[in-house]
UniProtKB/TrEMBL annotation:
Pfam families attached to this UniProt entry: Response_reg (PF00072), Trans_reg_C (PF00486)
CDD domains: trans_reg_C (cd00383)
InterPro entries, per the entry: CheY-like_superfamily, OmpR/PhoB-type_DNA-bd, Sig_transdc_resp-reg_receiver, WalR-like, WH-like_DNA-bd_sf
Residue list for modification 4-aspartylphosphate: D53
Domain OmpR/PhoB-type residue range list: 130-225
Stretch forming the signal peptide: none
Keyword line: DNA-binding, Phosphoprotein, Transcription, Transcription regulation
Annotated protein name in UniProt: Sensory transduction protein RegX3
Record feature DNA-binding region, as residue ranges: 130-225
UniProt superkingdom: Bacteria
Species in which this protein is naturally found: Streptomyces cinereospinus
Limits of the Response regulatory domain: 2-117
Amino acid sequence: MRLLLVEDDNHVAAALSAVLARHGFDVTHARSGEEALQALVPEGAGFGVVLLDLGLPDQDGYEVCSKIRKRTSTPVIMVTARSDVRSRIHGLNLGADDYVVKPYDTGELLARIHAVSRRTAHEDAASGGEAALLLGPVRIELPTRQVTVEGSVVQLTRKEFDLLALLAQRPGVVFRREQIISEVWRTSWEGTGRTLEVHVASLRAKLRMPALIETVRGVGYRLVVPAA
């Protein structure tokens, strides 16, 4: 897989590139936001994943993520020292598919890269002609992966859409956290639990319907159909 590493520290980039190469990745190193954006022309330039460090010298990392998402659907994994939930949600709202908090374990990073690439391949293969899901003012177009609320399009990341679509297929049914992680993230890795919480919070905020996804304490989540 081709991977675009966006990192301004050459020593960090060299060490990480060596590790990634040993695991079969073809790494291209961009030292700034502008280099990264140029490398992704045209339409992602064949990269399977973008590993984006937020501490860049020329542009804010969040701004770079937003620009990347406008140009390509290539999955973006943010690398950040900011561990608070608000920062993570902000990154997801801008189109990031996942995040890794510094200092991170290399095994964790590799697991997240592989998980993102597996989801992308699965989604591309599974797209078909299924009907739309209607939930009050919410319409979920499964073939085009588009969500609208009262006719207005809501921009969701891949994982946000998958999570919403899963819950929406069985409204009112409680999905256990382990089941959601297995079906959306396609892993049983325990570290994904916090990611699930962040994505639920992000969905509630983007849809502006905090009551749409109900937390069932100690169990998981369910979708509550809003009144028409």
